[in-house]
Amino acid sequence: MKLRTLMLLLTCWLPVALANNGPAAARVNGEEISEFRLERYFAEYLEDQGRAVASIRNPKAYKQLRQAALDVLIDKELLWQESRKRGVVIDEQSVRRQVEQTRRTIGGTENFNRRLQEAGFDEASYTEYMRRELAAQQMFADLIRQRFTQTRHLLVKVAPDADAATQAQARLRLNQMRASIISASGFVSGAVRSPFGWHLIYLQNQLEASDVPQSQGLEAVTGEFVRQQQTQARRQVLAQLRVQNRIERIDDD
C-alpha cells in the first residue's frame, strides 16, 4: 500500500472506544459510524483530493463532499460485515506483513507508534483493524471477480427419444449459436447432451489481463475499456450491498 492509503486507514478504522463516542453519522445494520469518525476521515478525504475544509465556500459542495466521505465509510462497513457473513479469514502472516510494511513506510518504529497514538491506536488494536481492512478488501475483490465471471448456458430442447436427424439438427443449431457468442466469451464449451437436449456452457464478462489483446495500437482503447468495466463492476457491487443491507444516514438530515 502507498503511504497515503496507509494514512487513510488510520482514520477509516478508528478503535471502537473512540469511534462510538458522541452522536452517530450513520448506522449499517445497527452498527454505528460516529460523527467523530466521519470528522476525522473527512479531513483526510479532502486532503487526499488536494482540498481543505476552509477552501470550500459553497455549502452545497461542502455537503456533497461530506456525503461522499460518508459513502466511503459506509461501503467499508458493508464490505467488512459481508466478509464476516461469508467467513473470510485473513491469515496471521498476511496481517503481520502488512503491519510491518506500514511501519517501514511511515519511517520506523518511533514514527509508527506516534502516528498510531495520534489516531487512537496501539499496535495490538491496529493489527486487528488491519485484519479487518484486508478482509474487506478481499471481500470486495471476490465480489468483483464473481461479477466479471458469470457462467451461462444455452439450451436447444430435444426429446430423449428423438431420432438421429433431429439430434443432428439440434447440434447444428447449437453450433451456429456458439459461433455468435464465442468472440465475446472467455470460454465456450462444445455441445453437451443432457436429458433435456443439447447445452452450450460459456463464461460471460470474463475480463482477465491475459485475455485482452495488447497489440497494433489497441492498448489505449482496450485499457480504457477494461478500466470502464472495472469501475462499473465496483459501482454495481457496492450498489447491490447497499440495497441488501439496512443503512441509516443520519448526518445527511
TrEMBL record:
Please give the superkingdom of this protein's source: Bacteria
List the InterPro entries.
PrsA_foldase, Trigger_fact/SurA_dom_sf
User: Gene3D superfamilies from the xrefs?
Assistant: Porin chaperone SurA, peptide-binding domain (1.10.4030.10)
Report if keyword Secreted is assigned.
no
Kindly state which keywords UniProt assigns to this record, in alphabetical order. Answer: Isomerase, Rotamase, Signal
GO MF, one example? peptidyl-prolyl cis-trans isomerase activity
Q: Which residues form the signal peptide?
A: 1-19
Q: What is its EC number?
A: 5.2.1.8
Query: What reaction does this enzyme carry out catalytically?
Result: [protein]-peptidylproline (omega=180) = [protein]-peptidylproline (omega=0)
Extract the coiled-coil ranges from the record.
none
Q: What protein is this chain from?
A: peptidylprolyl isomerase
Species in which this protein is naturally found = Pseudomonas fluorescens
